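note to self — DONT lose this again. spent like an hour looking for the file last time. sequence + predicted structure for the chain T wanted, 144 res
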Amino acid sequence: MIKFLLMVNKQGQTRLSKYYERVDIGKRPFLEADVVKGCLSRKKEECSFVEYKDFKLVYRQYAALFIVVGISDTENELSIYELVHNFVEVLDKYFSHSELDIMLNLDKVHIILDEMIQNGHIVETNKNRILAPLLALDQMSEPH
């Protein structure tokens, strides 16, 4: 099961966080800082799967952004690794995939995540089906 997904920049600033398991609001900044510090300090040659406390971390770097996913011990790391890549491809397809686009359109990024992951489980990987609700919203908001 997916516990959380974080998108952070190279400076360690959280740009997006989505939790699928309850974590107290007061504990989230400490968890995020610890997780991010652990992932950012690793070398490029090192494995992208990390044991962390009672769960595992899967992360990938894309340009200036890191995407970190916390998963249960029973979840398949490779499937999550590919999910992260698929998520980035969907972002690329919809945005020009700059950190600024993501920052200015967090609501749309959350819609994309909600189409892909529900209750900590992967429910959709088809890029066209993931983007369909956003494209429909865009069409409705266009002036006629």
